[in-house]
Amino acid sequence: MRDITHISSVDEDSSGQKIRMAGWIQDVRNLGGIAFIIMREREGVFQVTAIKKNDPELFEKIVNVPRESVTTVDGTVQENEEVINGFELIAESFELISEAGTPLPLGVIDKVGADLDTRLNNRFLDLRKEKVLALFKLRDIMERAMRGFFTGNGFLEVHTPKIVAAGAEGGATLFPLKYFDSEAYLAQSPQLYKQILMSAGFERVYEIAPAYRAEASDTVRHIAEFISVDAEMSFIESSEDVMDLCERLVYHVLKAIEEEGSPSLELWPVDLVLPKLPLRRVTHEECVGYLSGLGKGTDPEGGMDTEGEKLVGKWIQEEHGEDFYFITEFPTSVVGKTFYAMRKADDPELTGYFDLGCRGLEIVSGGQREHRYDVLTKQMEENDLDFEEFEFYLKAFRYGMPPHGGFGLGAERLLQTVLDIKNIRECVLFPRDRARLVP
Ligand code: 4AD
After folding, report:
1. Whose CA is nearest to atom 29 of ligand 1?
2. Hey, which residues does 362 pair with through a beta bridge?
3. What percent of the chain lies above the pLDDT cut of 90?
4. pLDDT digit string (tens) for 315-367?
5. Is residue 275 within 8 Å of 254, Cβ to Cβ?
6. For ligand 1, what atom is nearest to the CA of residue 340?
7. How many CB atoms lie within 10 A of CB 386?
């Protein structure tokens, strides 16, 4: 490794010391006799100062390096309160390691923002932006907090196959693929496998992994590849146990972002209000009743459409000043294709299924699963599912299956809503959608 000093290692004791720093030349301000070069590294930006009379040749070279080239600079640290980080590096020599072409297809520090498509087409440059990097640092905090939460609550991290023979969430959004001499699919969710693990006695599992959906519509909340945060646990009494776990997870994540998010959060100034637990529970019936009163937001199956979901989020914010809420007791007719959802014992028209919403965006869905073989197969029959195709799954229910439940949380959706981002694609390094397969 080259001996390189990062910003955080420079302090008062560094003053007068000779060090080497490395990074991308972000901007050059040449004042004639002195030039201020703003360089960027993974911890942020720092200033290199070149003084012409010290070394005219070096001065000429460094001020003419194209922006975004990678260089190392050797120099002496000088304290300077006027400068970002409180120090500048007085250049003594530098090495141009990789020269950037000109013009840049996307400006890294341009004040005028490029449209999202241009940004995503040139993502390698877009990701050089401090604010964009900050988002992925916050995402890292979020995912680490999730792992910490699950480990702390006795969950085992697992990895289930992403090449599968059967879909769990309905055929329409399956991506088929050629698998040797047969047809397979990309997994829409680890659903069936995490249930099988309940029969194996793992009792509490979680998985943070990609899930694939061939979504028909192009929206700001759907992508074809997202990270699904899935949990499943056994010996629950009702969906309420699952909601309890889910809200504690979300709270834990928000707290971690609040506590560890600085300085990235300074670039994402959001109103992070920690919700009070337990979160508000509104039944699906109450939501549909409210929307019917407005005369909009419902769909022909008795559910809510996207506008309805947004209106419910707004309603809860206006009535109670709360961002997060559960929509509970989804009707059997609405849950529909979710054949594995347990129906209420006293009212088979209802399930214990829930969604966790935040300001009108669905973040999580989950609930208690049907663990009784005879009831499960009946529900599968209603959905015209081919038993043979699901035999690998059904088998696990014939030899001892505890009551269980769990949820799936869209990692990008949670980040999107916490940072108040319009388009979910911003939360993914290299998003996939109907129109985008590269970069
Ligand atoms: O509501 P979904 O389809 O539920 C399941 O996958 C169940 N197996 C979960 C369970 O354990 N019962 O997906 C779960 C979450 C959604 O709430 C949403 O946040 C996210 O996954 N999600 C998507 N995020 C981005 N783009 C898409 N196309 C998404 N589809 C689902």
Report:
1. 222
2. 357
3. 91
4. 999 999 999 999 999 999 898 778 999 999 999 999 999 999 999 999 999 99
5. yes
6. 12
7. 9
Predicted pLDDT of residue 145 = 98
Q: Which residues lie below 8 Å from residue 254, measured CB to CB, with a gap of 6+?
A: 272, 274, 275, 418
Q: Which of 359, 351, 364 is nearest to 309 (CA)?
A: 359
> Measured in angstroms, how far is the CA atom of residue 75 from the centroid of ligand 1?
52
How do the residues of the chain divide into helix, strand and coil, expressed in percent and rounded to 5?
35, 30, 40
Q: Answer whether 329 contacts ligand 1 (Cβ < 6 A).
A: no
Residue nearest to atom 12 of ligand 1 (CA): 366
Instruction: Give the N- to C-terminal CA distance of the chain in Å, as an integer.
Output: 29
Please indicate whether residue 169, judged by its CB atom, sits closer than 6 Å to ligand 1.
Answer: yes
Which protein residue's CA is at the shortest distance from atom 22 of ligand 1?
Answer: 410
Check residue 348 and give left, alpha or beta (phi > 0: left; psi -120 to 50: alpha).
alpha
Closest CA to 233 of 162, 158, 169: 158
Atom 1 of ligand 1 has which residue's CA nearest to it? Answer: 365
Which protein residue has the closest C-alpha to ligand 1 atom 17?
Answer: 364
The one-character DSSP state at 188 is S
Task: Confirm if 287 and 325 have CB atoms less than 8 A apart.
Answer: no
Q: CB–CB of 391/373 below 8 Å?
A: no
Query: DSSP label at 242?
Result: H
pLDDT surpassing 80 at residue 170: no
- Please work out whether the CB of residue 413 comes within 6 Å of at least one atom of ligand 1: yes
Q: Which atom of ligand 1 is nearest to the CA of 341?
A: 12
Ligand 1 centroid from CA 102, angstroms: 42
Distance CA 2, CA 244 (A): 49
Provide the mean pLDDT of the chain: 95
Distance 117 CA to ligand 1 centre (A): 25
Residue range 18-62, pLDDT digits in tens: 999 999 999 999 999 999 999 999 999 999 999 999 999 999 999
Residue 2's nearest CA partner among 27, 29, 20, 24 is 20
Does residue 215 line the site of ligand 1, with CB under 6 A? yes
12 band by pLDDT with thresholds 50, 70 and 90? confident
Atom of ligand 1 nearest to the CA of 222: 26
Phi, psi dihedrals of residue 91, rounded to the nearest 5°: -70, 135
Atom from ligand 1 closest to the CA of residue 369:
12
- Of the two residues 150 and 171, the one the predictor is more confident about is 150
For residue 40, which of 118, 122, 127, 113 has the smallest C-alpha distance? 127
**Residue whose CA is closest, atom 24 of ligand 1?**
410
